[in-house]
Amino acid sequence: MASVIETPQDYIEHHLKHLTVGEGFWSINIDSMFFSILTGLLFIWVFRLVAKRATSGVPGKLQCAIEMIVGFVDNNVKDMYRGKSKVIAPLALTVFVWVLLMNALDLIPIDFIPHLATLSGLPALRIVPTADVNVTMSMAFGVFFLIIFYSIKMKGALGFAKELTLQPFNHPIFIPINLVLEVVALVSKPISLGLRLFGNMYAGELIFILIAALLPWWSQWLLSLPWAIFHILIITLQAFIFMVLTIVYLSMASEEH
Question: Is residue 48 flagged as an active site residue?
């Protein structure tokens, strides 16, 4: 059964707790996994539905919205990706829409899902997957592996090794220094990519929780409503930034020099 919430501190701790199985390193946040998979399936279902029903005539509202999103992502890929690949545009579209859907779950009233969890006898349930560092870092490391793959594919293993050891100082004596600098720069890409998204979404969720915990119920809307409206910009901007950095990093990896 869920624990009794008596103080604002208990309320905040309860809303920041994940539904977890396992212990330590091998623990899994079931709620983050469930809602991330759910939003991913929603993305696939909606886009497949629109693709099957697409018409060359006057499009419906949903088809028009999807076409605008696809065109927006495609234009960004053409502007930023210098190589030629059939994978980058679909990847960028998937990243943008999936992250946007996961972020948008933060707009659901903060007590709705935890209340359903309490009624179901669950100890905790968090709904925003991107407020879980495990999810954002998993996505970031997925991009990191693609960076390594495209670097080796375009430059070859030897070319990639030279890029790590002969830049920025092109002399054998500086190989140890170059290697340290380039490895740090390479590893910092997924870390900054994942932590940026996590930090912004976690902070946004925490503000909703603080408003609900510290203000009487009848006055919460005075702050929660303006913050929710402003938060729409944040969730969209964070999805866009994640997509743009993914494209830029893969474009840099695909350069043959």
Answer: no
Assess contact for 126 and 19: CB atoms under 8 A.
yes
Question: 134, 138, 196, 251: which one is catalytic?
Answer: 196
71 burial (CB, 10 Å; 0-12 / 13-18 / 19+) is: exposed
In the chain, the amino acid numbered 236 is: T
Higher pLDDT, 55 or 65: 65
Determine how β-strand 28-29 pairs with β-strand 20-21. antiparallel
DSSP secondary structure, the chain, as one string? -PPPP-SHHHHHHHHT---EES-GGG-EEHHHHHHHHHHHHHHHHHHHHHHHH--SSS--HHHHHHHHHHHHHHHHHHHH--S--SSHHHHHHHHHHHHHHHHHGGGS-TTHHHHHHHHTT-S-----GGGSHHHHHHHHHHHHHHHHHHHHHHHHHHHHHHHHHSSSS-SGGGHHHHHHHHHHHHHHHHHHHHHHHHHHHHHHHHHHHHHHHHS-GGGTHHHHHHHHHHHHHHHHHHHHHHHHHHHHHHHHHH---
**pLDDT of amino acid 222:** 87
Residue 200 appears among annotated catalytic residues = yes
Choosing from 27, 170, 192, 219, the catalytic residue is 192
Annotated active-site residue in 151, 200, 224, 254: 200
Cis status, amide bond into 114, omega within 30 of 0: no
> Residue 24 CA to chain centroid, in angstroms?
23
Annotation marks residue 3 as catalytic: no
How many Å apart are CA 190 and CA 248, to the nearest integer? 12
pLDDT of the residue at 10: 85
The whole-number average pLDDT for the span 200-216 is 91
